[in-house]
Structure formats: C-alpha cells, structure tokens
Specification:
Elements lengths: L5 H16 L3 H17 L1 H8 L5 H12 L5 H12 L6 H15 L2 E8 L5 H13 L8 E8 L7 E5 L2 E4 L2 H13 L8
Parallel strand pairs: 1-2
Antiparallel strand pairs: 1-3, 3-4
Helix pairs in contact: 1-6, 2-6, 4-5
C-alpha cells in the first residue's frame, strides 16, 4: 500500500487476514476508525503511546481502560500485542493502513478533493459520476469522497484518485498559460 511503512502494512494485512477468518473485519474497521479519531485528536495519547521510554506495562492498562469496553476482542488483543512488541508508536499508521486495505477489499475507491470553497451537492455528484465513469476505475463499487477546503487555492479543484492527481485549479491553468507564452516560437529567417 502506498504511503505506509512496510511494517505498518504487514501488521495491518495480518490483522485483516485474521479478521476475515473471524468474519469481523467490518467491526474491526469501525474499531480502528474510533481509535484513529482519538489518535488524531489527542496529542497526549499519541505522545504517551509513542514514548519509547515508557514500558509496555504502563501502556497496556491505558489501552484496556480506554478501549476495552467498546472494542472487539480481536482488536484489543492485537493492539496489546503491538504494545508488547514495542510497536505502539505504529498504532496510528497501522490503523490507517488497515482502513485503506479494508476499503480496497470492499472495492471502495478513495477520492481526495481539494477545493477553494466547500463543494456543493451537485459538484460532489459530478465528481462521483466522472470518477465512476472512468474505465480504469470500472471494478470499484463505490467512492469514499474526502473533501478538504484549501483557502490558498485560487479556484477550481484538485482530485487525487489511486495515486493519480488531476489538477483542475485556476492556479494550474494560469501557470500552464504562463509557460506557453514564455516560449518564443518566433524564429527570424534573416
């Protein structure tokens, strides 16, 4: 998987394989989505789990108390196993890799959209129709659309789909226009 370390991909792949055997991959994906919310929103949790000085014996009770009541047993055992292996610093990346691998398994195409202003419903629909209409994405069943408003974008939008980027921003068009006119195509014959 692109963007994740080999270690994170292997841990996530192993957990996905185990969860598929236990028919619990959807529940574990939900567990990791909840964990990622905590991981991304709390710098204290990230710092605590990433701290290499703290012994696993201090981190395990935290994980059990914070997530034990709401998480699937397999998810909790997996997280504890990672802590014992001194891989707690990778929990966030493993959770993201698991989510990406699970989406790929479910044939859900991830589409990142950066725009200068929030997208309207009609624009969202047009993007989904355009992406699903492309022949290279014909095997996918649905789209997970992630929007990001980027105020420094002059206008238009930037799409990222499966590692491919389509820059439809006004800034890109102006840059292309500038490059086109920076070339002197006139060659004097005298």
């Amino acid at each position: 998987m692109k963007g994740f370390s080999t270690v994170a991909n292997r841990y996530a792949g192993a957990l996905l394989s185990l969860s598929n055997e236990a028919n619990s991959s959807q529940v574990i994906a939900q567990d990791f989505a909840s964990f990622l919310d905590v991981w991304n929103q709390s710098s204290e949790v990230r710092s605590f789990l990433k701290n290499p000085v703290l012994q696993p014996g201090l981190k395990i009770p935290f994980i059990q108390e914070a997530f034990g009541k709401s998480f699937q047993d397999l998810t909790l055992r997996f997280m504890i196993k990672m802590v014992r292996a001194r891989r707690a610093s990778l929990l966030g990346e493993v959770a993201e890799s698991f989510a990406a691998q699970y989406r790929r398994q479910q044939k859900v195409l991830e589409v990142q959209v950066k725009s200068a202003v929030p997208l309207s419903d009609s624009t969202r629909k047009a993007i989904q129709d355009w992406v699903m209409g492309r022949p290279e994405f014909s095997g996918w069943t649905s789209i997970a659309l992630h929007e990001q408003v980027q105020s420094d974008l002059i206008g238009g939008l930037v799409l990222q789909v499966e590692g491919q980027e389509l820059d439809l921003s006004l800034e890109r068009k102006l840059e292309d226009f500038r490059k086109q006119f920076s070339k002197n195509l006139y060659v004097a014959d005298f």
